[in-house]
Amino acid sequence: MTTRTGGCPTRIGGYDVDLFTVAPDHELLCSICHGVLRCPVMISCNHIFCKKCILQWLKRQHTCPCCRTEVRGRLLVLMHRLNKRINRLEVKCQYEQHGCSLKFPVSRMDEHSSSCGFALLKCLNEGCPAEILRKDMDAHLATCQHWKQLCHFGCGTLLTFWNRDQHNCYLELKEEWERKARETRRMVARLKQKSRKIQNLSAQIRRQILLICETLDIPESNETSVHEVSG
Ligand SMILES: [Zn+2]
Ligand SMILES: [Zn+2]
Ligand SMILES: [Zn+2]
Ligand SMILES: [Zn+2]
Ligand SMILES: [Zn+2]
Known about the structure:
Elements: E1 40-42, E2 48-50, H1 51-60, E3 77-78, H2 80-88, E4 90-92, E5 103-105, H3 109-113, E6 120-122, E7 131-133, H4 137-143, E8 148-150, E9 158-160, H5 169-216, H6 223-230
Antiparallel strand pairs: 1-2, 1-3, 4-5, 6-7, 8-9
Bound molecules: zinc ion (5 copies).
Protein name: Ring finger protein 151
Pfam families: zf-C3HC4_2 (PF13923), zf-TRAF (PF02176)
Domain TRAF-type: 112-155
């Protein structure tokens, strides 16, 4: 007799009897979970249970759940041939009610369940209450209004279903740059206009001073001499 612990699925409890296409023999049932033995092991009194079921049981009690005799030691014997026999039995997909009509041996059950398109899954987006068949998940995610993601260009914008189509870092930068350039051009134009006004004004003043000088018969001179004369 050998003690084996590895190599079996780690789910607690046996296989659901209802999944089997042919009702399984009574001897294939676990008397703890009432399912079909998953990873069957034998204890010292020769009774057989799912490995997980008996390990859970022995944590609390030290007698066999069938015959109540004391369990000597922790020796669990893995029933290889029984395991193989169960693994060959045919089962329906556990998502049959969602539309999967596949049938396969028990040994392929876990592999199929983790990829079955008819498995009902929660939407991957936080806050979305939707439950979607795996096969429809991509289509749902494309239109899920709970979609959220930081812009992957690193601009720090939290993109949502509502703003992701408008968001474009490059365009936003370009628009910002163009807006600044327009502003600068407007400022330069305003400054040019002002300097032209000042030039015009100073030319006007110069003309008026000349006119005054001519009237008073004063030689063209600077403001000081004008002031001296008038004072
Ligand atoms: Zn069990
Ligand atoms: Zn027993
Ligand atoms: Zn399926
Ligand atoms: Zn969703
Ligand atoms: Zn961005």
